[in-house]
Amino acid sequence: MRKLPIAVVTTENGLDVPEPTSNDSRTRSSTHDAKPARRSARLVPVTLPRRTTAVWASFAAAMTAATGLLLLGDGGAPSYLAAVSPTLIAHHGAERSSDITPREAPADTSRWRAIVIHHSGAPAGDANSIERAHVGQGLTGLGYHFIVGNGQGLGDGMVHVGYRWNRQLPGAHVAARAEESRDIARAAFGPAEADTYNRHSIGVCLVGNGNRRPFTERQMRELVSLVRSLQEEFGIPSSAVRLHSDLSGIASPGIHFPVAEFEANIRN
Questions:
Q1: Residue 3, CB-side half-sphere exposure with 13 Å CA sphere
Q2: Can you give the pTM of this predicted structure?
Q3: What are phi and psi of 223, to 5 degrees?
Q4: What architecture does CATH give domain 69-265?
């Protein structure tokens, strides 16, 4: 067992709460104008089991490696923390194509050649929580162009349009294959190929963990509708609609993603 110091603040009402990290503080200060309560900080030692410490250390190492690969594709993004776009797409069916029109720049029809499907890896979340995670990993903002909610954070089937799409910026969502592979096609997908995908593919993320449970019916229906609209708008064939796991060693969007049904419903 080892003890880790955790900063705890005592508020005016005497309650002890964890001190927010620097990233959280920066995010909150940019979105809330309320005057913070007076507080004093003190350190409280918290004992963690040795197994728990080892698990978190392994998780942190894996995330660091994946993030280093994603950063290669983040060169075209702004150098500041971009505010999360408030643009949301509700359930409009046939009107979908008008909803994907970028709000802050003309559609770059020569840039977008592929679509890559991901999952967030967490059972719940929205654009704000995913962006905070991406910024914490070293990205300059939300790495995806679109996020499709599952009702746990972002509404079920609700589509969030990210600032990268509204400004027609490259994504930061495709990682290179970190491990060696005997498969020549897979082994060839290195940093340069990942960078090309980040610059020329549209990143769509499903909130949820596809390795734990299936996505919702409405979520999948809206994903198909979004992908079909993007295909039609930018002339993207079904062969260029890829899962992240097709390209990288990352199991995303997961084993419960209905591949056959999805492929049968997108445009040829």
A1: 6
A2: 0.67
A3: -60, -45
A4: 3-Layer(aba) Sandwich (3.40)
- Report the percent of the chain where pLDDT is more than 70: 59
- Within 10 angstroms of residue 185's Cβ, the number of other Cβ atoms is 7
User: Comparing 186 with 118, which gets the higher pLDDT?
Assistant: 118
| Nearest-angstrom CA–CA distance, 68 and 49 | 29
Kindly list the domain boundaries of the chain, sorted by start residue.
Answer: 2-48, 69-265
Write down the pLDDT at residue 17.
35
Number of Cβ within a 10 Å radius of residue 38:
9
For residues 180-197, give the mean pLDDT.
64
112 contacts: CB under 8 Å, gap ≥ 6? 200, 201, 202, 230, 234, 236
The first and second tokens of residue 88, run together, are 């949301």
- The answer, yes or no, to whether residue 129 has pLDDT greater than 90, is yes
* Token representation of residue 178: 């970190």
Q: How many angstroms from the chain centroid is the CA of residue 90? A: 19
What type of residue sits at position 179?
Answer: E
Q: What is the pLDDT of residue 267?
A: 75
pLDDT at residue 51 in the model: 45
Q: Looking at this protein, which amino acid is placed at residue 225?
A: S
Report whether pLDDT(88) > 60: yes
Reply yes or no on whether the pLDDT at 13 is more than 90. no
